[in-house]
């Protein structure tokens, strides 16, 4: 059995880094020379992604520490057609107390909360009210989520309305047709306009990678979004048939690294969609640690977009503390 001291030390390591000093990516002019040089070796990417889960196996107190870190990086999400003010309020209560107090105390923590709560515009004010007094930001999905096919002016209005309602983060979806037709200037222009509409709110650009046809398109779209001023690039809406995968994540985080090396600006990464198992959250954290380093391992630069992940993480933490798996009703989500 691990000592309390060892647990506490490892859990203390899981506290989120504060990154008040992070300078926001201001964007830059579209550089088609750079975009055109994006080269993807698909089989190398797939091989590397396949080895990641085996390369960093964390156990016991280290696993608990990494899972706590995952919670602090979680955009706790509900994006369902049957969302109601009631289930959004319950989600916010979970965001404020993501792990049962007795488990948290056994791990040496007083309190812990998630990175953000992510909802449709309709529920931004409900979530803002429910989270009042905390530091947890509300993120709104925007610009005709998930297809992104609303009229451009409507998209800008939607962003402005969510910001006015109190959203501090805006998750926009890009127009996939700009990528599929190679109209990089149009993609750049729309993301730049979205960034301007966001003002102080942070902009996450959702690529919907499964709909971009090739990994090269994913790499090119990642760069163009960062050039246009994205604060984060995000894989998926959660509504595509295939959402966040490690190969796609690898292409995106390497684009982030490239952008940082060329410009000095750090852009965040958000894998989203289909991430439900605690084990997968460890794979994603390993990818970030290996490709971008510890600086990215905090909720200023890394988020999971997930509606169902927290339940499994809480279950694994309860098992770590008690040696027994809790019944599903003991870790309710909403
Ligand atoms: O942005 C977050 C995703 O929509 C969540 O997807 P999920 O419900 O598959 O976890």
Automatic annotation (TrEMBL):
SMART domains recorded: DeoC
Gene3D superfamilies for this protein: Aldolase class I (3.20.20.70)
Signal peptide: none
Catalysed reaction, written as an equation: 2-deoxy-D-ribose 5-phosphate = D-glyceraldehyde 3-phosphate + acetaldehyde
Pfam families: DeoC
Domain of life: Bacteria
The EC number(s) this enzyme carries: 4.1.2.4
Pathway: Carbohydrate degradation; 2-deoxy-D-ribose 1-phosphate degradation; D-glyceraldehyde 3-phosphate and acetaldehyde from 2-deoxy-alpha-D-ribose 1-phosphate: step 2/2
SUPFAM superfamilies on file: Aldolase (SSF51569)
Region (Disordered): 1-24
Keyword rRNA-binding included in the entry's annotation: no
Record key words, sorted: Lyase, Schiff base
UniProt-listed CDD domains: DeoC
EC primary class: lyase
Compositionally biased spans, kind Basic and acidic residues: 1-10
Family matches, as InterPro entries: Aldolase_TIM, DeoC, DeoC/FbaB/LacD_aldolase
NCBIfam families (alphabetical): deoC
Family according to the record: Belongs to the DeoC/FbaB aldolase family. DeoC type 2 subfamily.
Name of the protein described by the UniProt record: Deoxyribose-phosphate aldolase
